[in-house]
Amino acid sequence: MSKANTTVAPSGEELVFTRPASLVDRPTHYCPGCHHGIAHRLVAELLDEMGVIENTIAVASIGCSVFLYNYIDADGVESPHGRAPAVATGVKRARPDKFVFTYQGDGDLASIGMAEIIHAANRGERISVVFINNTVYGMTGGQMAPTTLIGQKTTTCPAGRCLEREGAPIRMAEIIAHLGGTAFCARGSLDSVKNIRQAKKYMRQAFEVQAKGFGFGFVELLSGCPTNWRMTPVAANKRIADEMIPYFPLGVYRDVVADGTCGSMVAGGE
Amino acid sequence: MSRITVSEERCKGCLLCTQVCPVEIIRQSERINQHGYKVAEVPAEDMEKCTGCASCATICPDVAIEVWRGKKPKKSA
Ligand SMILES: Cc1ncc(C[n+]2csc(CCOP(=O)(O)OP(=O)(O)O)c2C)c(N)n1
Ligand code: SF4
Ligand code: SF4
Ligand code: SF4
Ligand SMILES: [Mg+2]
User: Measured in angstroms, how far is the CA atom of residue A18 from the centroid of ligand 3?
Assistant: First the structure.
């Protein structure tokens, strides 16, 4: 819930939920029920709550969220085709005083930009990554992504993804967690009120490890793409619970603050 | 008493809010907005049941819902 919640009406009623100040008040181009809208709101709420919005540089990617800069009221760089972690590396190294995050889909991050994300995490770049896993290339019409589930029908695997032919769906949070520079890594989901609230807590931790200089912060968000799944938004949320979460378990995969190893990750630390 | 407002300009009629309300007061209206979506509403007579829990606003992908939480009505002696 946004912190901009102190508005009190003459009747004594209190406004407890409203649009965060950093989320631009305009209609989005997203389909009904698309979870990009929820993820954008959570990002904007955190930038407001952490007080970093004036100091933020967003690095957007390719995919349906390509127009991120139209919605989040921060400075931004557009870096399509998986290169966002490389561009964010340059931005952060040039301006270490800035809060720098990337926002990337699964086609962008786990396919086209697999090299960039792996090496940015391994180097421990002081950036934060919001990774939207909706198991398809949404923007281009629902082609198979590295995250597409076995048996899931897409336009490029009309008979369903086949393990023998295409390999198993990639679990990014598990991979990123094991790289040396990763300070925080978790997987949340946007399919239910409870999971959305938990996802925001994970996003805050992924943002704070950057703000505190501990290292690379990563949060994967299981998200719905009702249009390309050819489902209603309500059915899409059920699919996340029934099919995605069992394969992509939710939780924290690395947390150097909880481990007590964060001291060794600060430059010049132990 | 608590209440919500639904922005009929922003609502896309996805109906996710209707699934999460603990007192089941949100429904699809017959009104179609300028984008062609049938918007969500709480019938006036049901609004007093709203608990102000903000579940509907939390799940709304289009930030169309605002939630107002009222002072608990004083019990008359
Ligand atoms: C060099 C190049 N390769 C591929 C594309 C096509 N393209 C546009 S968006 C996109 C990926 C979209 O998928 P994802 O990152 O999962 O984002 P989503 O839309 O699902 O949120 C691709 C491959 C392109 N425009 N240019
Ligand atoms: S195609 Fe999918 S990811 Fe893109 S806006 Fe529509 S629902 Fe969202
Ligand atoms: S705030 Fe809670 S009780 Fe009120 S309409 Fe929304 S979901 Fe229902
Ligand atoms: S969740 Fe939001 S967009 Fe969807 S029907 Fe409810 S108010 Fe409208
Ligand atoms: Mg995708």
Answer: 14
Q: What is the pLDDT of residues A226-255, one digit of tens each?
A: 999 999 999 999 999 999 999 999 999 999
- Is B76 inside any structural domain? no
Domain membership of residue B75 (yes or no) is: no
Closest alpha carbon to A131 in A36, A32, A237: A36
Domain count, chain B: 1
Q: Which of A 24-53 lie inside 8 A of B, CB atoms?
A: 27-28, 30-38, 41
Enclosing H/E stretch for B55: helix B55-59
What is the 8-class DSSP label of residue B70?
A: P
Distance (Å, whole) CA A121 – CA A116: 9
Report the gap between the CA of A250 and the closest CA in chain B (Å): 18
pLDDT tens profile A73-132: 999 999 999 999 999 999 999 999 999 999 999 999 999 999 999 999 999 999 999 999
In a domain, B7, yes or no: yes
pTM: 0.96
Which CATH number does the domain housing residue B66 bear?
Answer: 3.30.70.20
Q: What is the pLDDT of residue A1?
A: 52
Domains of chain A and CATH, by start: 31-267 (3.40.50.970)
Listed residues: CB within 5 A of ion ligand 5: A 105-106, 134, 138
Residues with CB under 6 A from ligand 2: A 30-31, 34, 36, 64, 134, 138-139, 225-228
Question: Which helix (H) or strand (E) segment is B56 a member of?
Answer: helix B55-59
A232 at the B interface (CB within 8 A)?
A: yes
Contact B59 A16 (CB under 8 A): no
Q: Where are the alpha helices (DSSP H) in chain A?
A: 36-49, 68-71, 84-94, 106, 114-123, 163-166, 172-177, 193-211, 226-229, 233-239, 245-247, 256-259
| Segment A183-210 mean pLDDT | 98
Reported ipTM: the value is 0.94
**Do B68 and A28 lie within an 8 Å CB cutoff?**
no
What residues make up the domain containing B50?
A: 3-70
Q: Does B9 touch chain A (CB under 8 A)?
A: yes
Chain B contact for A6 (CB, 8 A cutoff): no
